[in-house]
Amino acid sequence: MKSNIEKVYSKLPKTELATQKVELGVADDIAKMQSTLQKSLSDADSKLKEFKDAKDEFAKAEAKALKVRATASKVSGQYDKIAGAADRIREKAEKAAKDLGVAPSSIKGFNALEDLTIDLADKSADIEDFDFNLGQ
After folding, report:
1. How many CB atoms are closer than 10 A to CB 8?
2. Per the structure, how many domains does the chain have?
């Protein structure tokens, strides 16, 4: 024979305990997901700061490159003038050497003048043609 307590327990719904277990499981999932979301938000903030810093760095470098690029024609023109003056001196030296019947290379510094003139003309062209590749 069952006691009154047992009779009462037997009449109680059995799903109440299962519902509580499901609710606890969902609450655990929610807590874990909140933790994951908070960590992800922190990571995202760090990434966004890194992106902003990189963008700022790029903007500074771009501004500097644009400033330097703007001087290319002027500087290249100056070097071309100097190379042109050196060519005129070289031509005078060649004419004088021919008049004297000697090789221009026998004039002290002639070969170095010729080499330096070519080097400066090449550098001038490199400056003029330099591609900063800034997408502009």
Report:
1. 10
2. 2
